[in-house]
């Protein structure tokens, strides 16, 4: 997407609020599960990118919108992009799919309406 077509910060904030459909407590509890740790790309056995993102999302959700900085807004943009791309790859059985678990690490449970 060219820079002229990039979504502005207010559009990203709106999409982030729509797409991240897990509240901070729910996401934090999910991140403690074995399923959460099974998915995502990891470097040398460490934490996956999505799992680290989930922890960052919890911190963003707990801040008032007025307290979010440029780093938060960049991460929100990344989260929106990830969720939008991965939602288009929905498998037949989503309940126990790695696809769903990966999205949940990014704060989006496709079973939450």
Number of distinct beta strands: 0
- Measure the end-to-end span: 28 Å
Helix-and-strand structural type: mainly alpha
Assembly category: single chain
What is the helical fraction, as a range of percent?
55-70%
Q: SSE order, as H and E?
A: HHHHHH
Number of separate domains: 1
Largest sheet: none
Instruction: Assess the beta-strand content as a share of residues.
Output: under 5%
- Poorly predicted runs are none
In DSSP terms (H or I, runs of 4 or more residues), the helix count works out at 6
Mean pLDDT metric: 90
Approximate shape:
globular
Radius of gyration, in Å, reads: 14 Å
Structural account:
The chain has helices at 9-19, 24-31, 34-38, 49-62, 70-87, 98-105. Helices cover 57% and strands 0% of the residues. Helix 4 (49-62) crosses helix 6 (98-105). The mean pLDDT is 90. It contains 6 helices and no strands. It has one domain (3-105). By secondary structure, the chain is an all-alpha fold.
Name some characteristics of this structure.
113 residues; mainly alpha
Task: Please outline what is shown here.
This protein has one domain. The chain is built from six helices and no strands.
Topology readout:
Blueprint: H1 9-19, H2 24-31, H3 34-38, H4 49-62, H5 70-87, H6 98-105
